[in-house]
């Protein structure tokens, strides 16, 4: 998968972080969802690398990235790890696209490192639960972790991947979604579910002055359209792009539409 953009590895403190890279120019960072990895961004690496330096990371515990030491991390832990990774890659500032769980990381990055982010795209954003560090996982997150422990990564993907896609998703889109979900590593997935529980997207973005675009589809069973529209409505100055009747992996279902929505936004001056 993604042989045109093979994984690279960079040292971030004592940990290794893997990523895929394409192109040169202004930095554009892509943060994947909870059931995915950098391989999900194949269409964006190919297209947006024409005029950006595109970095698609593997979150800690995903791909070949080492997991964080904290097994119950907060979004801040991922955000600071991302900042250190950008330091290691020689990137001072970047535009950031966060998909689903990745939107929580992106929001925490914007909160903790506001001078390092230019524009922010929240793609099918998860909003988090704002739970305390010692609180039990919400039932939805706990059920996902139980499925992983019972079925294993490939079994989890067989059960869940196709359900995340829209009604018109092509077979190759479902296959991509299933393959990347089947590469989940248990330690990374468990930690990411704790991030999802502790995260609070709207609190992290409250009062920040930066351009924000929210993008989602009308057939997403994971982050429903109404919730995504509500996120945009609650963020002053944010706009909303309706990607049509697509499911959660819109970047793969309608890549041309998705990429054009990104390009239009990234052309704006801050």
From TrEMBL:
<dbReference type="Pfam" id="PF00561">
    <property type="entry name" value="Abhydrolase_1"/>
</dbReference>
<dbReference type="InterPro" id="IPR000073">
    <property type="entry name" value="AB_hydrolase_1"/>
</dbReference>
<dbReference type="InterPro" id="IPR050471">
    <property type="entry name" value="AB_hydrolase"/>
</dbReference>
<dbReference type="InterPro" id="IPR029058">
    <property type="entry name" value="AB_hydrolase_fold"/>
</dbReference>
<dbReference type="GO" id="GO:0047570">
    <property type="term" value="F:3-oxoadipate enol-lactonase activity"/>
</dbReference>
<keyword id="KW-0378">Hydrolase</keyword>
<protein>
    <submittedName>
        <fullName>3-oxoadipate enol-lactonase 2</fullName>
        <ecNumber>3.1.1.24</ecNumber>
    </submittedName>
</protein>
<feature type="domain" description="AB hydrolase-1">
    <location>
        <begin position="26"/>
        <end position="252"/>
    </location>
</feature>
């Amino acid at each position: 998968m993604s042989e045109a953009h093979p994984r690279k590895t960079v040292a971030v403190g004592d940990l290794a972080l893997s990523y895929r890279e394409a192109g040169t120019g202004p930095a554009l960072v892509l943060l994947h969802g909870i059931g995915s990895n950098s391989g999900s961004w194949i269409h964006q690496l190919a297209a947006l690398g024409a005029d950006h330096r595109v970095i698609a990371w593997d979150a800690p515990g995903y791909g070949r990235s080492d997991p964080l030491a904290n097994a119950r991390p907060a979004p801040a832990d991922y955000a600071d790890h991302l900042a250190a990774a950008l330091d290691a890659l020689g990137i001072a500032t970047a535009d950031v696209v966060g998909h689903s769980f990745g939107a929580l990381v992106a929001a925490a990055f914007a909160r903790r490192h506001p001078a390092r982010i230019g524009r922010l795209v929240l793609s099918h954003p998860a909003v988090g639960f704002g739970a305390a560090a010692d609180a039990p996982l919400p039932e939805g997150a706990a059920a996902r972790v139980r499925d992983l422990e019972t079925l294993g990564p490939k079994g989890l993907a067989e059960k869940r991947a196709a359900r995340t896609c829209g009604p018109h998703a092509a077979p190759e889109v479902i296959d991509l979604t299933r393959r990347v979900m089947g590469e989940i590593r248990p330690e990374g997935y468990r930690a990411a579910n704790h991030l999802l529980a502790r995260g609070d997207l709207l609190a992290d973005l409250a009062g920040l002055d930066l351009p924000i675009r929210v993008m989602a589809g009308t057939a997403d069973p994971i982050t429903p359209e109404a919730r995504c529209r509500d996120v945009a409505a609650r963020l002053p100055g944010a706009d909303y792009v309706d990607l049509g009747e697509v499911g959660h992996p819109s970047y793969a279902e309608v890549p041309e539409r998705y990429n054009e929505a990104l390009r239009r936004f990234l052309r704006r001056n801050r």
